[in-house]
Amino acid sequence: MRPMFSSSSLSSLLCFKSGLFRWLAVLSLSLFLAACGGGGGDSDNNSVSSPGANNGGAGSSDTPGAQPIAATAANTVPITVGPGAQNFINIPNVSVTVCAPGTSTCQTIDNIQVDTGSYGLRLASDAAAQIITNLPINQSTSGGQLAQCTQFADGFTWGTVRTADVKIGGETASAIPVQVVGDLADSTVPASGCINGSNERTSRQLGANGILGVGVSPTDCGTACTNPVTSNYYSCPSGTNCSQVAVAVANQVVNPVTKFATDNNGVIVQLPPVASAAASVTGTLVFGIGTQSNNTLTGATSFRSSAFGNLSGTYKGATVTTIVDSGSNGLFFNDTSLPACTTTFTDFYCPASSQTLSSTVRGLDGTTGTVNFTVANAKTLAGSGTNYALNGLAGNIGSFPTLFDFGLPFFFGRHVYFGFGTNGNSPFVAF
After folding, report:
1. Where does the record place the region Disordered (predicted)?
2. Residue 256 CB contacts under 8 Å (≥ 6 apart), including other chains
């Protein structure tokens, strides 16, 4: 679920909210599939084999079966894949406490989506109603209210940038910029810049009460937004008449984990195995890599990535840009040999029987690996209407044919590491 910037930035990186193409809601799907029977699909949905790598650990075994560690330490927080805020399938959620800077005036907000494909905390204004009036709105260099339009594959988020203390598990990021989504009127949406799809201004439209972007980049835009022409930030005098404005990197919406006092160089997403479908599962988000006894990088293959987490690879002989994105609720890639579901949910694949496939992954450092995965029938997977963790869910990536998106099903049974590009370190993804 990664932000898409201006067309100029797309030439060097593919950044977009890949996970939401068409949200697959359990309630509506169960009504549609009432006559389709119960669950199905194969186990062993994802596996990886990396030549020369240590494949003996939990993160990269031939049959992913890693269990998450207990979320009892200060650098951990539980992840739940279940009904969440809006009954959407395959949404990993955590609780985040947001406070007025330097005070004990706080609100704990549940069902914040963990998104390794975006960067920074974004709160749905309806879910954060108790605290947002206590969060000061940041000012642009020209003196107007600072706002942001973050474009995604299926829409955009529009709202002010504010300062907050953010607490997750036992860690705190003090006085950081966050985006509040939906706190500005639709009439203030810029005529240019916010052009992709609809305004996702509520928790219902987001599918969660907010988005916790913990991808490898420390900020959500970087140098592109230091130029007003390519910036997705706006200055809004008195909250209206918004115009593009340059924002220094230090003032952009920031990945909160990078601002923790310790355990700030990366995260580990750990989810248990799911054979086919489950009502819910609980995993762990671990902060830091190699900073504590519970976050060592062992038994996993590291792939150096671009500044925004991109890898490369091949699928059925075609070169693809590869991303590993917990904000995507399925595996997304183009394959005309896989039949799409009919009548509705046509962005998802519905093969008559589960298909075992593979894709290669390559890091910028030349490290390569082969990921084996299974595509199951989406209607069969969700047929019970009561399962929210679906392994084998996959769909067509549509307008991005050269992209391969390892979404949430990839994470089941794995420890997946995201090393940040901070303090001179090269960003990486490991599993």
Report:
1. 46-67
2. 120, 121, 166, 168, 173, 176, 178, 212, 214
CA-to-CA separations, 53 to 127, 240, 330, 368, in angstroms, rounded: 44, 55, 26, 9
236 and 296 both lie in a single domain: no
Q: How far apart are CA 89 and CA 156, in angstroms?
A: 21
Record the pTM: 0.89
Phi, psi (rounded to 5 degrees) for 33: -105, 20
User: Which CATH number goes with the domain that contains 126?
Assistant: 2.40.70
**What are the C-alpha distances in Å from 54 to residues 47, 51, 239, 330, 358?**
14, 9, 54, 27, 19
Q: What is the pLDDT of residues 112-142, one digit of tens each?
A: 999 999 999 999 999 999 999 999 999 999 8
Structure tokens at 41: 């699909």
Task: Kindly state whether residue 282 falls inside one of the protein's structural domains.
Answer: no
Record the tokens describing residue 426, joined without a space.
Answer: 């090269």
356-375 pLDDT, tens digit per residue, is: 999 999 999 999 999 999 99
Nearest to 137 by CA among 168, 105, 161, 159: 161
Asked if residue 275 is part of any domain, the answer here is no
Domain count, the chain: 2
CA nearest to 9, candidates 176, 153, 224: 224
Give the tens place of pLDDT for each residue, 300-347.
999 999 999 999 999 999 999 999 999 999 999 999 999 999 977 888
At 136, the amino acid letter reads: P
At residue 247, the pLDDT reads 97
Once rounded to an integer, what is the mean pLDDT over residues 166-177?
98
pLDDT band for 101, please (50, 70, 90 cuts): very high
Measured CA to CA, the distance from residue 210 to residue 427 in angstroms comes to: 25
